[in-house]
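Expect sequence, tokenised fold; for instance:
***
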Amino acid sequence: MLLAIPLVILASALAVQASIAHDAHNHIARHHRIARNPEPETTPAVKLRRRKSCKTPNTSKTPTTTTTTKKKAATTTKKDAEKATPKANALVNKQSPAGTIKVQVDRCGDNGASTKISNTAGPNGRLSWLNCGLEGMLPLQIVTSLIYLSLDGGWNPPFMSVDDIVVEDLSVALKSSSSPFHACKPFMDIFYEAADKYNLQPIMLAAFAMQESSCDPKTVGGGGEQGLMQITKDKCGGAPGGNCRDPYFNIMAGAKYFAKTLENNNGNFLLSLGQYNGWSKGLTVEKATAARWTSCCLCQNNLDYLHQYMNGWILNQNAYALNLGKYHNLEVCRH
């Protein structure tokens, strides 16, 4: 009798989580359908606004080679991610940390960062570190002869702020003939202006656009999502002439939404990135892949997403062409 009570509570909690996750499935499936589309034809040039405050980017072909001028320790150890606070004065076009990310979080083990990009590691940490807790089993705790199932397991990402992250500058990236961002070139000044306004890096926003729409401003998602950043209709208020796909409005709205998510998460970039793609704290492999056995296989969460974004796209690498990741759990949906 006593054993049944905690199990009933557990079942109720999991049912609530399943209901919340279901609401996001349509958006996730639409994202995965678009994600591996080939680049669209070159978009006619649009009238862009002049950059307001961005400095001329470094023209070096290598990713960044100097650190920001902020005073910070060479290695940042954060045992408790939730206690960290955002760095409000992160500036666009400042050089990102050189080489590899310096963040370490004890509960996630060594970050495993490597200057060489591989299927499971790169300058911003190894895949298992970015996915910290995803594969962890929920511990059983025996208390006074009763068995309680701890609900503290699942994905709990290490804290990193925007200026902890190693990135390639978008202007430098586009100098490479192999850059995956050439479809985004007509909108480069907008990405810079939006990044400057919301304390992000331009390539971070361009990476969202590449993944969401292949940088095609005409894209309309299955749920009515609009334009380059695939923003939902509730974010279209104030669009010029009611055109939510207007590149300037669309990129600014998408950047504002992500910046707000980042603020709500106390500056935790990785947590915000996961949420942008349908992840949630506490996510497990089992939950993420449950939809595989349903009629909506593409409603699964892409378990390689964080690695593909952090060690692929924002480093000017096509994560799909390099086949980054180890799970590739969406491939079964394409056969």
